[in-house]
């Protein structure tokens, strides 16, 4: 039986040291924090985790850090998105070998690809690792959007068990759900946007796999659980409460604002991989100062402590 992701999962941010290496101690603290906050799985080697800056060796190392830190408490999923199928398969095989329960893959990026090329990418990936769950990943911000019919067809592949939709469009999510429903497919649809946790769960979504589940996992878990319990007022109020923090994090180049928020919560994330000008650095510092106030107020409202981790 293939694993079907369900619940709140952090699309995990990655902590680096001053040399650009993975900071295993901080990364392990982050994973403990997410699991102790009620997350039901860990997604490593993610977009917000800066997988595009990682060579294959470092991506595989991050998978191993996640599996080791999780200690079997929750399933670990690994990102295997790449610009070509050979690298996706290489990453997927490593994920399977070290005990990951699933892999997450968006369409190949950078070069333009057709829907047929994307479908063949998923087919080849499924054929190469038939014994591990695959999560389709729709992220129009960075890669070719998945069409409704493509999702319908790919959802019939036996080891494709879920889809992460980061389009942010409830219209698209409804059509994805309807397409797979009409053909009797049983994949789980997960929100890839923090703003949609309440609404997507109301529509029948099975959780969320998002970057802020690394930053304030306790709050997203509360939104999800309150929705499932029928406490819609609590869920709706918390959903609106996180919006200002999200807008602030997106006010600087992605994912600088997200990493700044992690610093506010008490985790040393290390210097960014991207080269920054003095102006960029000043904007990032200003963003972090604003987040200090915003997250303090958010955490107070949600009744959770602001500072977590070892600092």
Task: Characterize the structure shown.
Strand 3, helix 3 (85-97) and strand 4 (102-105) form a beta-alpha-beta unit. This protein starts with 6 loop residues before the first strand and ends in a 9-residue tail after the last helix. Helix 3 (85-97) runs parallel beside helix 4 (115-128). It is of the alpha/beta class. It has helices spanning 24-36, 56-70, 85-97, 115-128, 148-154, 170-182, 197-202, 212-215, 217-228, 232-241, 243-249, 256-264, 278-302; strands at 7-10, 42-44, 76-79, 102-105, 133-138, 160-165, 188-191, 207-210. The strands form two sheets. It has a six-stranded parallel β-sheet. Strands 1-8 form a two-stranded parallel sheet. The protein has 13 helices and eight strands. The radius of gyration is 18 Å and the shape is globular.
Short summary of the structure?
The protein is an alpha/beta fold. The protein has helices at 24-36, 56-70, 85-97, 115-128, 148-154, 170-182, 197-202, 212-215, 217-228, 232-241, 243-249, 256-264, 278-302, and strands spanning 7-10, 42-44, 76-79, 102-105, 133-138, 160-165, 188-191, 207-210.
- State the end-to-end CA separation: 40 Å
Structural class category: alpha/beta
Mean pLDDT: 96
Number of continuous helical runs: 13
Based on the model shown, name its key terms.
alpha/beta; 48% helix; 6-stranded parallel β-sheet; 311 residues; single chain; 13 helices
């Amino acid at each position: 039986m293939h694993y079907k992701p369900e619940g709140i999962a952090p699309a995990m941010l990655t902590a680096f040291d001053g040399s650009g290496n993975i900071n295993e101690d901080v990364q392990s603290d982050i994973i403990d924090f997410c699991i102790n906050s009620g997350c039901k799985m860990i997604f490593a080697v993610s977009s917000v985790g800066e997988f595009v800056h990682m060579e294959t060796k470092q991506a595989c190392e991050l998978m191993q850090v996640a599996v080791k830190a999780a200690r079997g408490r929750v399933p670990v999923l690994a990102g295997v998105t790449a610009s070509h199928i050979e690298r996706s398969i290489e990453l997927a095989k490593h994920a399977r070998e070290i005990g990951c329960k699933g892999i997450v893959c968006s369409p190949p990026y950078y070069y333009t690809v057709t829907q047929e090329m994307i479908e063949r990418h998923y087919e080849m990936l499924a054929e190469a690792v038939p014994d591990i769950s695959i999560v389709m990943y729709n992220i129009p911000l960075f890669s070719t959007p998945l069409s409704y019919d493509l999702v319908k067809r790919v959802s019939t592949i036996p080891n494709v068990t879920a889809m992460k939709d980061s389009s942010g469009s409830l219209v698209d999510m409804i059509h994805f759900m309807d397409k797979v429903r009409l053909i009797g497919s049983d994949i789980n649809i997960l929100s890839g946007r923090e703003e949609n946790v309440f609404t997507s769960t109301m529509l029948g979504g099975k959780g969320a796999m998002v970057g802020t589940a690394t930053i304030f996992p306790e709050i997203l878990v509360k939104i999800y659980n309150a929705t499932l319990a029928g406490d819609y007022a609590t869920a709706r109020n918390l959903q609106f409460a996180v919006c200002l923090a999200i807008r602030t994090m997106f006010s600087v180049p992605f994912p600088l604002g997200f990493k700044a928020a992690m610093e506010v919560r008490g985790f040393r994330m290390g210097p960014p991989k991207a080269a920054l000008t003095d102006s960029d650095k000043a904007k990032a510092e200003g963003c972090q100062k604003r987040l200090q106030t915003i997250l303090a107020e958010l955490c107070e409202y949600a009744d959770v402590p602001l500072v977590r981790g070892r600092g």
